[in-house]
Amino acid sequence: MTIAVLDGDTFDDLAMLLVFALEGSTVTGAGLIATTAAEPRPRAYGWTVRDGWLHPMDTANVQAAIIPCPGSSAVDREVYPAPVLIKPSGMDEESDRG
Prior knowledge:
alpha+beta
């Protein structure tokens, strides 16, 4: 599924899909590919969902994920390593922070 986050509604869709993937009770494999719209060379980054969190994908897997279908036109994107996202702690029902 591809979502272009251009407004609040599409951001809400993205947030819902991320929560669904991170919750983990029904999703066995998921990934997130983020691309920029920067010209002339947009960038792409990727994460996989494991153990309820996003982990950086290696650049070869991101490159494979963004290859367009044969016969379709697509923007050539530069692939970069995704940043490590620190998993917050204490965000459970017992916490006064979350």
